[in-house]
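If you are new to this repository, start here. Below is one unmodified record pulled from the training split, so you can see the exact layout before writing a loader.
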Amino acid sequence: MRRLLFLIASFIAIATPNHSYGRSTDVMELKEAANSKSLIAQVIPDNSLPNNSVVNSEQEITGGTTVGNNLFHSFREFSISSGTEVFFNQDSVIANIISRVTGNNISQINGSLGANGTANLFLINPNGIIFGENAALNIGGSFIASTANSIQFANEQEFSAVDTNTNPLLTVNIPIGLQYGNNPQDIVVEGSGNNLSIDFDTFTVNRGDRPLGLEVNSGKTLALVGGNVFLPGGNLTATEGKVVVGSLGANESVKFAPGELGWNFDYSQVNNFNNIELAQAASIEVSGNGSGEVFLQGKNISLLDGSAILADTLGDGTGRSLSLSATDSISLVGFAINNFFPTRLSTDVDLDGTGKGGNLALDTNYFLIENGAQVNSGTFGLGDAGNLDVTATAIEIFGESDDGEFVSGLFAQADFGETGDGGNLAIATESLLVAEGADISTTTFGTGNAGNLDIQANTVELRGYSDIFLSGSGLSVTTEGEGDGGNLNLNTDTLLIMGGADISTTTFGTGNAGNLDIQANDIKLIGEVKEVGASGLFANVEADSLGNGGNININSNRLTVTEGAQILALTNSIGDAGTLNINSQQIDLVGTSSTGNPSAISANANSNGGQGGNINLAGESLSIIDGAQIGTSTFGSGRGGNIDIVAGDSVRLQGSSGTGNSGIFATALLNDGAGGNITVDANSLSISDRATISASNFPSNENSTITPGVGAAGNINLIAEEIILRNQGNITADTFSGDRGNINFQTD
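And here is the target side for that same chain:
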C-alpha cells in the first residue's frame, strides 16, 4: 500500500549529507608510510633467482626464471610513477607471470602496468600496495594483487617474498593459494569517483562517464586480496569478467584455482578477516552483454558516499552473480553529493537487456542500509530479473537520503512497459527492523510478473514513516501494470508494526495482487499517523485497477490491533477485494486512534463493480472493546463480504468511543450493492456497554451524512451456548430498503 511514490523516488537523488561517515585511518597511514620512504617510480630486481629479472631504461622487464609455463620475477622495489609504463615482456608460451617484492617498501603504482600476450600477472608485496588515481593495467590475462607473504603451489612449495633462501622453482606447477603473515598490510585503490548518475527518463544507471580505473579484459579476473582493502574513489572494471576483493587476517591462507572467468577463490578455510571499504563514490563494475561476477569477502564491508557495485545485464547474455560475505557486518550508507546517485548494489537487466539478470546475495552477521542506500535486483528490459537473497543475524534499514530524494531499501522490480519478470526477494534473519520510511519491495510496472517476497525471522519490527514522501516504513508486493504481483510470505515469532508502518500487497493496474501470508506467534499492530494513515496489514485494489486484490492469511497465537491500527482488504475499483483469513488463539481489538478512527479488521468495496472481500476469523477468544470494530461494507454495486467468526471459548464486545460503538458490522451504503452476512459461533457471546452487532444498509452512526443504500442488508446468525446483552448492548438488522436483514439465534 502507498508504494508508488517510494519506488519512483528511490531512483531520484541527492544533496550533501548533514553528517559524514569516517573511513579507516589506515589509508592515510599507508600513504604516509609510502611517502616517507620516497617511493619515486622504481623497479629494482633483487637478484635472488637462478635467472634474474632485468629492467632496462625504458622500464621493460625481461629475464626472470621460467619453470614450465610459469615465469618468476623478484624485485627489491616495485613502484611506478604517473605517466610511466612498466611492461613485462615474455614469451607467448608463458601462462602466469609471478612476481614478488622482497624489500621493505610499499609498492605505489601511479602509472601503467602491462604485459604482452595473454599471461596472468601476479604481484605480491607484503608491505602494501597503493594504486593511485592514474594507475592502469594493460595485460591480456587476469591480474591478482596481494599483500600475502607467499604464493603457494600444488606440491606444497611456495614462492615467498619474505624468505628468499628457499628456491622451489624447479618443481612448482600451478599456483593454488596465498599465505599471509602475522600482520597483513593493506591494498588501496584511489580515484576520482564513479561519476554514475540516474537517467531520469528511464530510471536506469547512466554509466557513460564512469572511469574504468583498474581494468582487465573481458572474461578475466581482477583480484585484490590483502589485509584491509580500501577504495577511496577508486574504480575496478572487469567487463563480463570477475572482480574478487578479499581481506584476510593474520597467518591465514586463501586457496584459488583456474575457472571459467579466470580464477576462483575459496575462503572456506579462513577464520579471520579484515575490512573492505568503498568510499567517495568508488565503484566495481562487471556489467556487459551478460554480467560477470563480483565476490567480496571480509570482516566488515562498507559502501559509502554513493559507491556502487554493478553486475548488470546490458544485452542478451545471462547474468552471473554479485556476492558479499562478511563475518561481522555489511553497511550501505549515503549517496554521492554531486551526481544524483545513491550508494548501490545492483544486478539489474538494463533497458535494452533481453538476457536474464544475475543473482545478488548478501551474507553477514549485521546488515545496515541507511541514508538513501539501495540494493536492486530488477529488470528494465525484456529479460527476467535475478533473485535477491539476504542472510544476516540482524538487519536494519533506515529512512531516506538526507535531502529526502532516495528511499533506503531492498528492491526487486520489473519496470515500466516491459515483459521481463521481476526476481524473488528472500530474507533470512533473527531480527529485521525497517524504520523511518525505508522499504523492502517487489514490484511490476509492466507485463511481467513481480517476484515473491519471502521473510524468515525471529522478530520483525516495522515502525515510523517518511515525512518527505508521507509513506510508512514497510514490506510490499505491488503490481502497477499488466503483470501479477507476487506473494508476500512472512514467518516470524514476533511481528510489531507501529507509527504508520505497514505490510501490503496492492494492485494499481490490470494485474492481480499477490497474497499476504503471515505465520507468527505474537502480532502487534499499533497506531495511526495522521499524515500517512494506519499502521497495519493491507491488501488493496486501488482506483482504476482491473486486477483483483490478494488474500490476507494470518496464523498466530495472539493478534493485537490497537490505537487505530488496521487489517484491511479493500477495492476502490472494479477488481474484487481479497479475503481475510485469520486463525489466532487470541484476538484483541482495542480502542481508536487519536483522531477517532477505530482499530479494525475490515473488508470494503468502495467503488462500483468490485466485490467486497470476506472475513473469516477462527480461534479461542475474540475481544472487541473501546470503539474497535470488525466490518465489511460496500459503497457501490458490488456486494459486501461476509463475516464468519468461530471461537472455541468466547466473543466479547464492549464499550464505545467518542466516534462509534465497538462491534461487528456488515453495511451496504450509497448504492445497490447487497450487504454481507454476519455469523458468530462461540461458546459465549457477550455484548455490553453500547457495543453492537449490526447488519444494515444505512450508517450505524446517527450523525453520519452518508446516504443509505438500496441493496439488501445481510443476515445475522448467532450460535452460542449463552448470549449476554447488558447495558445497551445491541444486535440489530435494519434495512432502509430492500430485503433480508434477519436475525437468527441458535442458543441455550
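Two things worth knowing about this chain: Residues 142 and 545 are 53 Å apart (CA to CA). The mean pLDDT is 88.
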